[in-house]
Amino acid sequence: MSAPLDLPKWADTVLVPAISVVAAFLVAGLVVLAIGENPLTATRYLLQGSLGTGEGLGFTLFYMTDFIFVGLAVAVAYHAGLFNIGGEGQATLAGLGIALVLNNLTFLPGFLLIPLGILGAAAFGAAWAAVPGYLQAKRGSHIVITTIMFNWLASVLIVYLLVNVLREPQSMNPETRAFPEQSYIPFMHDVFAAFGVEIPTSQLNLTLVLALAASYFVWLLIYRSRLGYAIRVVGSNPTAAVYAGISPARIIIIAMVLSGALAGGLAVNELMGYQHRLLLEFTSGYGFVGIAVALMGRAHPVGIILASLLFGILYQGGAELAFEQPAITRDMVVVIGGIIILFAGALDGLFRRAVAHLFARQKLARA
Amino acid sequence: MSPAIELIAINKSFGAVHANKDVNLSVERGTIHGIVGENGAGKSTLMSILYGFYEADSGEIRVNGNPIAIRSPNDAIRAGIGMVHQHFMLVEPLSVVDNVMLGAEGGAMLRAGEAKVRAELARLARDYGLEIDVDATVGDLSVGLQQRVEILKALYRGADILILDEPTAVLTPPEADALFGLLRSLKEQGKTVILITHKLREIMAITDRVSVMRRGEMVATLKTASTSPPELAELMVGRRVLLRVEKAEKVPGAPLLEVENLSVVDARGVLRVANASFTVRAGEIVGIAGVAGNGQSELLEAIAGMRRPSLGSIRLEGKTIHSSEHNPHRMRELGLLHVPEDRLRMGLVPAFPAFESAILGFSHEPHLGRGPILDHDRLIADLAKKMEQYDVRPPAPRLKSSKFSGGNQQKIVLAREIERNPKVLLVGQPTRGVDIGAIEFIHRRLIALRDAGVAILLVSVELDEIMNLSDRILTMCGGKITGERKAAETNEQDLGLLMAGVTDEAA
User: Fold this and answer.
1) What are the transmembrane regions (chain A) (predicted)?
2) What ipTM does the predicted assembly reach?
3) pLDDT computed for residue A4 by the predictor
4) Number of helices (H) and strands (E), helices first, in chain B?
5) Which residue blocks in B129-222 are alpha helix, DSSP H?
6) Which residue in B342, B350, B360 is closest to A244 by CB distance?
7) Beta-strand (E) ranges in B177-310?
8) What pLDDT score does B21 carry?
9) Does A44 touch chain B if contact means CB atoms closer than 8 Å?
10) Across A56-70, B2-16, B395-409, which has the greatest mean pLDDT?
11) Are B12 and B45 in contact (CB under 8 A)?
């Protein structure tokens, strides 16, 4: 019998992650100190660059949108007991889906393009995740291995298609032609301007609203729906699922399909919201950030939104920091991100245990 | 002469749980001392402290009158204390000699150590009648013999005081008798034995003195000869309990569950159930007696539709179940409900709040929500009501399923299945890890169901329970049904032989 790890909900979901973040920043501060820079100045640049200006905030929220989608994708699979680390490949394929829909269905009325583009992203992302899901469910091929392989497949497939098939003949760049303009998801600054409110220009677009809606949908699905119930039974106790007449194989495939569709949101934000064309490596490794986001957010949509905001701050603020303090390179910022992931993910148990002990002792003292 | 073991004012807490409160225990040398108590009473914690797995928060341990500190099992072994765990700590692919030597090799090279082990095992066989094939692979030995290896391990390490934790849980009655014979001969040779069990019959049969624990406290230490099972049960629970629930004679009705030539082959290709045929009628409890691992689990799972039988057929209310509808979902719809053997792996989801575990297997029922969404308020209210009827403590539907005690978890599972008005109820190990008070409650419920005309198939490794509840008893051994008896016309010896595979034809 090990000491019980009983924590009030607020401590579990807020206090422990907060301690992890603070500890991560302290260690990251030591790293900054070690390369001869002032950690306090660095922190100031980081926060000012990400939250201090309207423009910076816009970029932070843009990144946050990406992270929410990939975080939710990882979380849904995680609830079914699956470690989907193929968000990168699923988002890449979702981008292909967007490009195929938007550049081929131009004869349709313009207002249909946005929903169809989103559906195309979801469908392609889902299909790309369904294959590893099927292999796991029916053949027992480990989902971690297959999703990694599918990331590589996606990345070479997209290079081949952009270089040989989808590239505009006169262009030297491996990218498609621009999407039709009616398919652009409106920038937030344009939306606000339509209501006569002036906000700074940034990449932030209405996909953020979609991301928040998706978070609510995932919460409803996982914690309130019959399907989510079945997903959690399979993830938490597969034998009980068999007893209950829930088919784990079916649930695994469904969860992966949903996961892949959510990963497609990354492509929606990046391509339909900002780039307006399909290009190479638009996913920028964010699919992997989704793993950290989901871990840190404890696979709960609220936690994922908060963790996405944190990583948004880190990515936007980090870019500013690298710009202002050249000694701190982008790679350094990646290191800091890595430290946070290490503390929030891997070392999470360390603080949880300590906090649980504190609470137990307090309870005992009161009793 | 000072006692072999003295525990004085032992305290141990895990977080907010006070597992041992000022526990005192004195075990006389050369006696067999029983420790009884319900699950969670603190028996295992106390023995773990004695064996060095945990350190007490306060208190003193004396061995043969000398105060000593036991910080690890190594300290305990040095003090002459040996332990035989309920779940054996053996390396199955290794031989008996290797297992005994493991951890006591006596150097980098094995040859000298091995010679010593062989000599010592020969001596132990001579002195205590602990015969065993020392070169046999442990995995090939019967459970009873594996337990013997555990005892040999402890004796080889010089144990004078032997702690046995629920040693008969995995044994057939004849094996248990052999074990008791062995314990008596150990006692005659001056060894001290501490026996942890929840079977009062064993306490009465073999111990000299018995200590009762309840809620972390030592409530009594008695001479076995001057106490009785009802008295011990009352001390364990803290109130009077009925050890045997009365049931009226009843003429069973129509056959509701008919199993014919059912065979089950597991994923590894091993035949688990061989050609089982039997009938359970309305208003009848049919018990399946057998030592754990003889195919009962697979039989239940196959009937419930969790496993595909390789041969045979099942009829419910006279209708043959087609293999396409032989799945847990459809069987539930047809009125065959199932209280599974393993609560924590099947009966509920430990990480879920209780109200979610309380719909496991039924989450598709339309009245539990609107469309695809479950109505949590309703689930919580439903469970709150059931918790009151079934006296689940604490009556907290939102509490995590794993936080309830075994008995209360079982009541949650039982309530879920019974409230859906089964025609046939499969019940596996209904009282495993359940406290005596709850056992009485569960037994009453099962008998009430039987009286209401439900056909109940009961699997249990507790022979008492089978004999108490069943109208008819089937015995299983090695996947085969080895015999059938009317409960009123059999006894433990008779069943024990059948469970050991001595069939009627052979006898």
Assistant:
1) 14-35, 56-78, 110-131, 143-163, 204-222, 252-274, 286-313, 333-351
2) 0.85
3) 43
4) 16, 22
5) 143-156, 173-188, 200-206
6) B360
7) 192-196, 209-214, 217-223, 255-265, 271-281, 284-289
8) 92
9) no
10) A56-70
11) yes
CB atoms within 10 A of CB B393: 13
Beta-carbon contacts of residue A206 (< 8 Å; ≥ 6 apart): A185, A186, A188, A191, A273
Cβ pair B351:A236 closer than 8 A = yes
- Interaxial angle between packed helices A286-296 and A301-324, expressed in degrees from 0 to 180 and rounded to the nearest 10: 130
Alpha carbon distance A196, A173 (integer Å)? 38
Look up residue B319 and give its two tokens: 């209708």
What Å distances lie between residue B490 and B246, B248, B497, CA to CA? 18, 18, 11
- Which two structure tokens, joined as six digits, stand for B174? 């004849």
B437, two tokens: 């008070």
Longest dimension (CA), chain B: 75
Give the DSSP letter of residue A327: T
Q: What is the mean pLDDT of residues A27-41?
A: 89
CA distance linking residue A38 with residue A338, whole number of Å? 20
pLDDT-based confidence at A121, cuts 50/70/90? Answer: very high
pLDDT tens for each residue of A244-267: 999 999 999 999 999 999 999 999
A243 Cβ under 8 Å from any chain B Cβ: yes
Task: Tell me which residue in A225, A233, A244 faces B374 most closely, judged by beta carbons.
Answer: A225
Nearest CA in chain A to B368: A226
The residue ranges of DSSP E strands in chain A, in sequence order, are: none
Give residue-wise pLDDT tens across range A2-32: 334 567 777 777 788 788 888 888 898 898 8
pLDDT value at A78 more than 50:
yes
Burial profile B126-136: b = 16 or more Cβ within 10 angstroms, e = fewer: eebebebebee
CA angle B366, B371, B376 (to 5 degrees): 75
Structural domains for chain B? 5-237 (3.40.50.300), 247-335+423-507 (3.40.50.300), 349-421 (no CATH)
Q: What is the pTM of this model?
A: 0.83
Of A148 and A6, more confident: A148
